[in-house]
Design goal:
196 residues, mainly alpha, Four Helix Bundle (Hemerythrin (Met), subunit A)
Length: 196
């Protein structure tokens, strides 16, 4: 069964130069880029309208940036270990990535509490509301990524390590998505730091 699927994947990739699932992921990423671009544009437009509370982004958001960047590196390391069939490194780095993803969400939640503590609770001023909305929407995408990582973890621990075209493709899709949410957060934290 897996050989038939692998053959179909190879044929689709040769025919289209890019696998249809990769193309679908890139289309989804492009739509997310447009959505976050629209949100940050709306932020700038609303800021120029006045009634804008200026505040510094809590430092915990910068710590969060380090966490998400490291998680991207550990997932990439897991992918490289998978390709070399280094089972312990593959599984271990996958676990670390998953835990860092959870840490990101916890720190995000703590960051919202810090915002509230400095006088920027939700639904008080549009400037704070935008920060909650943008970081919350990104957090939802991290949550979705954690679901995908959980499935990848189960595969890593429950199936024998074998590099096949289908498993490589699935890992590349997970890797691409996770790198995307990492880069997206970098853009958002820089944006929120510059336009506060």
């Amino acid at each position: 069964m897996e050989n038939t699927v692998d053959t179909k994947i190879l044929a689709a990739t040769r025919r289209n130069k890019i696998h249809p699932l990769k193309l679908a992921l890139w289309v989804a990423i492009a739509s997310l880029v447009m959505m976050f671009t629209a949100l940050t544009s709306a932020y700038i437009v609303r800021q120029s309208a006045g009634n804008w509370l200026e505040f510094n982004i809590p430092n915990i958001f910068y710590l969060n940036t380090l966490v998400i960047v490291v998680s991207s590196l550990t997932l990439h390391g897991s992918y490289l270990a998978f390709k070399r069939q280094a089972k312990v490194a593959y599984q271990g780095l996958m676990v670390v990535t998953f835990l860092l993803g959870i840490t990101f969400l916890v720190l995000q939640y703590l960051g919202w509490h810090e915002l509230s503590a400095i006088g920027v609770p939700l639904k008080t001023n549009p400037s704070g509301d935008f920060v909650y909305a943008i970081s919350g929407l990104h957090g939802l995408h991290i949550l979705g990524g954690l679901g995908i990582l959980l499935v990848s973890l189960l595969v890593a621990f429950l199936r024998p390590l074998k590099v096949t075209p289908i498993r490589k493709l699935r890992f590349e899709l997970v890797l691409t998505y996770w790198h995307f949410v990492d880069l997206l957060w970098l853009y958002l934290i820089i944006f929120m730091s510059l336009y506060r």
